[in-house]
Write a sequence for this structure.
């Protein structure tokens, strides 16, 4: 599932190719992914210039010259691509934006859970969807304020997109491992120092994932994700990936928190 790091990688790709380009045509191959009427989208897009891009959580925005934004949400299997000739259109292209340069941008989505819609602005969309601040932009103070009111468990609170947008299941596990906090702590009981560690870990995990273009196999060996994916890329030919990178004789444990698969180190992240 495309999480914040994948979506940021898609955004950079689109930014590189689309900014300052004019939309020449809006081609719909499968209406299923449209959350705004096709004709409304075509009228809003064709002839408009793309002035910039941005991202909020797992949503990517193309900014249009009249102030509106095209919102891309990638669902379970969404991706982006670019091509020039119809014969080269990627498989499962559902919608294509034809640019003035002749390049075509593809919204690719095999399972069709992704959505394309028009919004008045990023702020209007954020309000309508009640999304919190982006996880990469949230400050320690905002995180502290939002969590210190929560009597719920920490992991479900961090997954709540109203609190902060863009933290998915594996990301929250990695963040809590890096911050050495148990996922079933009550959010409001964290200390000042723990809030700071949590904020630093969110930055570390997201920035690392974006730097590696969300290819977890190339993540540092100090990351928990290798245990979650049973992947020995970071420690080839050994079973070290099944153990805590800090406590080499302690096996990473899989449990369920709020119904979601959760990985922790019992030594690094004690239950209090
Ligand atoms: Zn450990």
């Amino acid at each position: 599932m495309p999480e914040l790091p994948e979506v940021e990688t898609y955004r950079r790709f689109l930014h590189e190719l689309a900014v300052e380009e004019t939309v020449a045509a809006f081609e719909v191959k499968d209406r299923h992914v449209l959350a705004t009427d096709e004709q409304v989208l075509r009228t809003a897009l064709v002839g408009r210039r793309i002035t910039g891009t941005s991202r909020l959580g797992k949503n990517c925005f193309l900014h249009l010259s009249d102030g509106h934004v095209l919102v891309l949400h990638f669902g379970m299997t969404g991706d982006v691509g670019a091509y020039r000739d119809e014969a080269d259109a990627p498989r499962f292209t559902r919608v294509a934006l034809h640019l003035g340069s002749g390049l075509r941008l593809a919204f690719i989505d095999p399972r069709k859970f992704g959505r394309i819609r028009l919004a008045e602005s990023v702020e209007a969309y954020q309000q309508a969807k009640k999304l919190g601040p982006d996880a990469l932009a949230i400050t320690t103070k905002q995180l502290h304020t939002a969590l210190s009111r929560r009597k719920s468990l920490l992991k479900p609170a961090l997954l709540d997109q109203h609190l902060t947008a863009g933290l998915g299941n594996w990301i929250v596990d990695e963040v809590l491992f890096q911050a050495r906090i148990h996922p079933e702590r009550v959010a409001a009981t964290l200390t000042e120092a723990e809030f700071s560690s949590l904020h630093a870990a969110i930055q570390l995990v997201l920035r690392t994932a974006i730097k590696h273009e969300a290819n977890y196999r190339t993540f540092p060996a100090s990351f928990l994700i290798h245990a979650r994916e049973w992947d020995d890329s970071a420690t080839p030919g050994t079973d070290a990936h099944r153990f805590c990178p800090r406590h080499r004789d302690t096996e990473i444990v899989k449990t369920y928190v709020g119904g979601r698969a959760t990985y922790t180190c019992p030594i690094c992240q004690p239950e209090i």
Observations:
- The chain has a mean pLDDT of 95.
